[in-house]
Amino acid sequence: MLDRLQTFFQSVMQDHPKSVFAPDDPRIAVAALCFQVMEADGVVLDVERDKLRDILRQQYGLDGEQLDAMLRAGQDAENEAVDYYRFTNDLKRHLDEAQRQQLVGILWDIVYADGTRSEMEDHAIWRVADLLGVSGRERIALRQEAAHRAGLGATDDAS
């Protein structure tokens, strides 16, 4: 899983230096989508925030003030957005099909950080995946993989 995440994040940031967070930086779109999915059920737990911080820290090589700046930029972008389209449209232009699938897998990892998934989180990822062009079949497979990584195994394999 770590190799998959690392490959995804390296590809997203290859044309963007670590210290620059322009409004069109795809890393901000990724962070904003993560916030939108975390907030979908109306409850954002520390474990979910910690998971997002860990993913961004590991994959973008950010720490301290840079990591905090990226999280603020992602949260600000999410707060200003009225829907998922703004972010998915940008990411669809920057990411190939495999990378878009990897992003959906990352979103599931954040959902399962607290050990459960809500109907609202499921719906949020369904919409994001649809806008990214990730099939329902692939979205479900990615959800099952994330549940397994979270130690939930077959308990969450139903669609």
UniProtKB/TrEMBL annotation:
Residues 27-144 form the Co-chaperone DjlA N-terminal domain. InterPro entries: DjlA_N, TerB-like. It holds the Pfam family TerB. SUPFAM superfamilies: TerB-like. Gene3D superfamilies: TerB-like. This is Co-chaperone DjlA N-terminal domain-containing protein. It comes from Rhizobium glycinendophyticum. The lineage of its organism: Bacteria, Pseudomonadati, Pseudomonadota, Alphaproteobacteria, Hyphomicrobiales.
